[in-house]
């Protein structure tokens, strides 16, 4: 019997496991899913949890419930090495797992661009636990201010104004007044900065959508610094290329992502930012017996540009790889992966968003926000999680 091992229980890995079990019975293949936690994380909504707008338990969905009755063995463990030539995976606790077919769906890592002190002193927002840490930290800044009267405690900085940065800034703009109110502090003393290296926010996005986002966020007190690359982060301050220094105890870094180091270390062929090069079937170009999907891989889209590392594509790649492994087991032809980019919507806090759906239809405000919520509901329905939590 074949042993299929899936590394990672995120959008790509979970959907791959679910898709496989639609077609492959447990007498034909054993399926093991390895994940760091016993839960699947809805990381597209971390910005809400980071400010306390959504409880963290609603972002953690039990993998055993999502895969209930599907005969998938869930191994809770952290992958420390992949040895493709030996068809072996090593876990941090010393366990090893052998496989016949491997799917690597380990996601991306934060790109620090070698910025001095960024890794050591900035928060990142890539997991539910990090979101909890940020929320607790913000609360403590307000509480400490009452005793220490250090204005830097009430100055919050988000580095990067891509989708992740803008969504977080939007949530902070809506939530900080509540934190201030609870601490009995005037909002006049609170400052929220978004620092972006490019000349404008949401680089590459349509100008009218960018303008709408900027107007909405500025009206809620966000101070944008654009054309201002962060060059250094130290305890209590952040420095930008222009030489300007902002005194703060809170820098949250959303400046970019890169591939997974485990993929690089395993010897899979990668592009310079560590994402695995894959063929049209999502198999590693250097090791075609291994599928590498989601943020961990690098795929050129129809327009000749790399596909963005988004949840919707990870989800689609999970299904596509599940189908192709099924085809392999049946001796059928493999199907090329056909991405279907349904749109891009950036929330701007509670009840506001901007975005584009169905290629060119632009949406603003509450409508855009509702469209984003609807896409989240669609995902939950797809994975059978409407009424689940961890
Ligand atoms: P990103 O790479 O898209 O944006 C990072 C931003 O940080 C860029 O604008 C970059 O210019 C800026 N930056 C880099 N170095 C800097 C520096 N030294 N100082 C200041 N700014 C600096 O990363 P992201 O926002 O995390 O998004 C990653 C991917 O995930 C993208 O493809 C994005 O579209 C996707 N995403 C989508 C959604 C959504 O659909 N709602 C939400 C989040 C992320």
Automatic annotation (TrEMBL):
Lineage: superkingdom: Bacteria
Record-level Gene Ontology MF annotations: NAD(P)H dehydrogenase (quinone) activity
Keywords associated with the record: FAD, Flavoprotein, Oxidoreductase
SUPFAM superfamilies recorded: FAD/NAD(P)-binding domain
Co-factor(s): FAD
UniProt domain FAD/NAD(P)-binding: residue ranges: 3-318
Gene3D superfamilies referenced in this protein's UniProt entry, alphabetically: 3.50.50.100
InterPro entries documented for this protein: FAD/NAD-bd_sf (IPR036188), FAD/NAD-binding_dom (IPR023753), NADH-Q_oxidoreductase (IPR051169)
Pfam families named among the record's database cross-references: Pyr_redox_2 (PF07992)
GO biological process: aerobic electron transport chain
Family, similarity comment: Belongs to the NADH dehydrogenase family.
Name of the protein described by the UniProt record: Pyridine nucleotide-disulfide oxidoreductase
């Amino acid at each position: 019997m074949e042993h299929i091992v899936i590394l990672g229980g995120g959008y790509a890995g979970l959907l791959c496991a679910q898709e496989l079990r639609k077609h492959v019975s447990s007498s034909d293949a054993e399926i093991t899913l390895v994940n760091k936690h016993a839960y699947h994380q809805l990381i597209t909504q971390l910005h809400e949890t980071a400010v306390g707008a959504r409880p963290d338990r609603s972002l953690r969905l039990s993998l055993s419930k999502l895969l209930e009755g599907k005969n998938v063995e869930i191994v809770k463990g952290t992958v420390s090495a992949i040895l493709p030539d030996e068809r072996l995976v090593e876990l941090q606790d010393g366990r090893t797992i052998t496989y016949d077919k491997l799917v690597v769906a380990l996601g991306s890592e934060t790109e620090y661009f070698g910025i001095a002190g960024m890794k050591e002193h900035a928060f990142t927002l890539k997991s539910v636990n990090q979101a909890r840490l940020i929320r607790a930290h913000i609360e403590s800044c307000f509480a400490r201010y009452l005793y220490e009267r250090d204005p830097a405690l009430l100055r919050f900085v988000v580095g990067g104004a891509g989708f992740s940065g803008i969504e977080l800034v939007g949530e902070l703009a809506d939530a900080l007044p509540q934190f201030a109110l609870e601490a009995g502090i005037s909002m006049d003393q609170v400052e929220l900065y978004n620092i972006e290296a490019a000349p404008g926010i949401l680089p590459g996005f349509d100008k009218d959508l960018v303008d709408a986002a900027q107007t909405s966020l500025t009206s809620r007190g966000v101070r944008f610094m654009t054309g201002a690359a962060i060059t250094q982060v130290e305890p209590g301050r952040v420095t930008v290329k222009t030489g300007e220094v902002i005194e703060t105890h809170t820098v949250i870094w959303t400046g970019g992502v890169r591939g997974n180091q485990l993929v690089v270390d395993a010897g899979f062929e990668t592009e310079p930012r560590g994402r695995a090069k894959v063929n049209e079937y999502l198999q590693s170009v250097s090791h075609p017996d291994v599928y590498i999907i989601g943020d961990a891989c690098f795929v050129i889209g129809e327009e000749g540009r790399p596909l963005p590392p988004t949840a919707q594509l990870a989800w689609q790649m999970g299904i596509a790889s599940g189908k192709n492994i099924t085809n392999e087991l049946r001796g059928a032809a493999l199907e090329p992966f056909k991405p279907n980019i349904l749109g891009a919507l950036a929330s701007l806090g509670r009840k506001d968003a901007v975005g584009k759906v169905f290629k060119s239809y632009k949406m603003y405000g509450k409508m855009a926000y509702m469209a984003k919520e609807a896409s989240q509901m669609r995902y939950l329905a797809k994975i059978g999680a409407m009424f689940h939590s961890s």
